[in-house]
Amino acid sequence: MTATAPREGELWSRCGGCASLLYRKRLRRNLDVCPECGEHARLAAPERLRQLVDPESFTPLPDRAAEVDPIDFVDVLSYPHRLSAARASTGLAEAVVCGTATIGRHPCALAVMDFRFLGGSLGAAVGELITRAAERALEDDVPLVLVTASGGARMQEGALSLMQMATVSQAIAALREAGLLTVSVLTDPTYGGVAASFATNTDLVLAESGARMGFAGPRVIRQVTGRELPEGFQTAAFLLRHGQVDMVVPRHALRGRLVALLAAARAGRRPASRPAVPRQEPAPAARPAAVAAPPVVDAAPADAWETVRLARNPGRPTTLDYLDTAFEGFVELHGDRLGGDCPAVVGGLARLDGRHLMVIGHQKGHTTGELVARNFGMASPAGHRKALRLMRLAARLGLPVVTLVDTPGADPGVGAEEQGQAAAIAENILSLSMLPTPVVAVITGEGGSGGALALAVADRVLMLQHAVYSVISPEGCAAILWPDRGAAPQAARALRLTAPDLCRLGVVDDLVPEPVPAAHHDPEAAARALREAVLAHLLPLLDVPPATLVRRRRQRFRRFGAARAGARAGAR
Ligand SMILES: [Zn+2]
C-alpha cells in the first residue's frame, strides 16, 4: 500500500472550513484535520488506511474491479469515459479499496470507500469487492470494518447498482449469523444507497466528526418540501441525537476506538458457538449476465418514457385494489410498534387461491386527496418498520410473503431523516436476505430506488408490463447528469428501467402481461394476470427448505456483482 503523498507544488493548502492557508506537511501530520478550526478534510482511501491500520499490515484482496457498462449508459459522456477519467485522476481501479490488515494487532477485513472516484458511487464492481471483503472476514473468522464515503448509487449502472445494496447487505447478514462483528465508520458524505444498506446495517455505526449521513440529500429534501432545513441537519451530532449512530469520534481518536472495539469482540468470541451458515457462492461471471431469456410479449416494445407515464397513471390499480381483486380475505394489520403507522405502506394476512400468506405493499391512490393521505406511496421509516414487523411475523407463522411495490421512492423529508430512514431501509434489505420463508415481489407501478428495494429482496421478482424499476427517477438522473430536468425522456431510455430491459438484465424474473392498452383500462384482467403470475412463481417455492431458499435468494442477488477473481491465496 502506498500513501498518497502531496503532489509537487502542493506545499500549501487552504482549509475548507476557515480558509486558513496551511502548510501541507503540517496538515498531514495532523491527519488532515485543520489545526485552526478542526475541519476534517476528506481523505483518499489509501490515506485513510494509512491512518487506521498497523504499519505494513495491509494486504489488498486479490480481486480486481471488472470492466462494466452493463446498460451501455450514455449521458453527455459515456460511462466508460467517466470511469477512465476517475481511474486516471485517483490512481484507483474503483471507488473502494479492500483488503485485510491488523488494527492494534487485531486482524480484520476492511473496505474503504473513496469519494474522489465518481463520488464513491455504488456500482456492481464496488458492491462485489465489498462483498468479497465481507466473505474474506467470514473465511478468516475476523471482524469487518467498513469506511463509507459515497453520494449513493451509480446511476450509470441503473438497477444493477440498486441490486448491490442487497448483495452487500446479505454478506453482512452472513457475518451477523456467524457472530462476527461488523463496524461501519461513516465519513463525509454518506448518502443514498450506501447509507440505506451497509453503512447502517452493521452491528456498530461510528460517525467521524464532520460526517454527514442520510438517505435523501439536503438539496433534494429542500426541493421536495420547499422548507429550510434545521441547523446541523444530518450532521454527526444530529445522527447521535436521533439515535442513529453509536458514537461520534474525532479523526485522531478513530484508530484507538476501533482497537478497543475489535479487542472486545475478540474477547467475546467463543469459536464453538458458531452456527453453520449458508455460504454465498462466488458470482459465476465477471459481467452481470442476463440470466433468463426475456419473456415474449405481444405488444411492440414501448418507449421507456411512455412506460414511465403509464406506470405513474393515477388510474392504475393500487395495492388495496389488488388485495380486493386478486387476493381474498385481507385482514389489515397496522403499526410499527414503535410509535407510528405509515399510511403509504399497507399489509396484512390474506389468501391467494385459498393459501394463507402475508401481503405487504405500497399504497398510492387514485384521487389527489387519496394520494396526499397516502403520501404518494412514499414510505416513512415507520412504514418500513411496519413492513419488517409483518415479514418477521410471517416467517414466525410459516407463511409466505408477497410484496406489491409501487412507490416513487422513500419519503424524502426532514422527519423521515430524523427517524432514521436510511437504517430502516437497510434493516429491511438485510432482514429479507435472511427471511426463512418464500418471498415473491411484484413491481406493479413505480419501483423507485431504495424505497422499492426495501420490499423487493425476494426469491422471485416479477414486474407488470408497464411498470418501471429504477435506481433513480428519470427527472433526478437528468438533473444530475445532463444536467437538465427536461432530459428526463432521454434519461428514462438510458436507465433501462422497463420490464423487458430488466428481464434481460436478470434483475426481474418474469414479466406480467397487462391488458391492452394498460392495467387501468381493465383492472379485473390485470388482477387475474397478477394472481396467475404470483401463483405460478410461489407454488414451487413452498416445498423448498428454508435454508435452501435463503441460500438461493442470496445467490440470486450475488450474480449482479462484477469483479474479476484474482488468484486467491491457496484454495480458500
Ligand atoms: Zn480550518
End-to-end Cα distance, whole Å, is 23 Å
Shape: globular
Alpha-beta content class: alpha/beta
Estimate the strand proportion.
15-25%
Total helical segments: 21
The low-pLDDT segments are 1-6, 271-298, 567-572
Q: Which distinct ligands sit in these coordinates?
A: zinc ion
DSSP strand tally: 20
Q: What share of residues is helical?
A: 25-40%
Query: Any idea what the radius of gyration is?
Result: 23 Å
**Main β sheet profile:** 8 strands, mixed
Average pLDDT confidence is 90
Structure description:
This protein has 572 residues and is α/β, with parallel strands linked by helices. The chain has 21 helices and 20 strands. Strands 3, 5, 6, 7, 8, 9, 10 and 11 form an 8-stranded mixed beta sheet that branches. The structure holds zinc ion.
Provide the fold topology:
Elements: E1 12-14, E2 21-23, H1 24-29, H2 45-52, E3 59-60, E4 64-65, H3 79-90, E5 96-103, E6 106-113, H4 124-140, E7 144-150, H5 158-177, E8 182-191, H6 192-195, E9 204-208, E10 213-214, H7 218-225, H8 236-241, E11 247-249, H9 251-267, H10 304-311, H11 319-325, E12 328-332, E13 345-352, E14 355-362, H12 368-373, H13 381-397, E15 401-407, H14 414-418, H15 421-432, E16 439-448, H16 449-453, E17 460-464, E18 468-470, H17 474-481, H18 488-495, H19 499-505, E19 510-512, H20 523-538, H21 546-558, E20 563-564
Helix pairs in contact: 4-5, 5-15, 10-18, 13-15, 17-18
The protein binds zinc ion (ZN).
The site of zinc ion has 8 residues, from loops.
